[in-house]
Write a structure and sequence with these properties.
By secondary structure, this protein is α/β, with parallel strands linked by helices. The protein contains five helices and five strands. Helix 2 links the parallel strand 2 and strand 3. It starts with a strand and ends with a strand. It comes from Fictibacillus barbaricus.
């Protein structure tokens, strides 16, 4: 199968940069276009106010500030990723907001992506059972072939 459009999901993790290396190699060998996608995380307000750790803001202002920080973080990660891509490979970037699995799959569908390349963080045991993994969910929900880099 000849790939013409490859989507690489990057989040700054070691696994996503392994995925990027795979995506670059495939694009180099097939002449495919490369899209690097970063999905910002959901910032939630607690039900009853107060200060909460880890992805939960206590005010609407904190949510807005967190979204700005997350956008900036995504831009930084995409810039790091872009520096690794050969200049002769046509590359675009995108930052989207939402559930990572749904966003990756929807983007791939709407942009006629031929291959999704994603990293694997290597969750195991209870963490994998309860949290699942984005890569596993993308494999299950995508309409395109998915390459998981380990």
């Amino acid at each position: 199968m000849l790939f013409t459009k490859i989507l690489v999901a990057v989040d700054g993790s070691e696994g996503s940069f392994k995925a990027l290396n795979n995506g670059i190699e495939i694009a180099r060998n097939t002449g495919a276009e490369l899209t690097l996608l970063y999905v910002t995380t959901e910032i939630a307000l607690p039900l009853y106010g107060g200060v909460h750790p880890g992805g939960v803001a206590s005010t609407v202002v904190e949510v807005k500030e967190a979204e700005v920080v997350e956008q900036s973080h995504g831009e930084e990660i995409l810039n790091r990723a872009l520096r690794r891509v050969d200049p002769e490979i046509k590359t675009t970037t995108a930052i989207l907001h939402g559930d990572p699995t749904a966003t990756i799959c929807a983007y791939a569908d709407s942009h006629n992506i031929d291959l999704i390349v994603i990293g694997n963080r290597g969750h195991s045991g209870f963490k994998k059972l309860f949290l699942g993994s984005v890569s596993q969910k993308v494999i299950t929900n995508a309409h395109q072939p998915v390459l998981v880099a380990k």
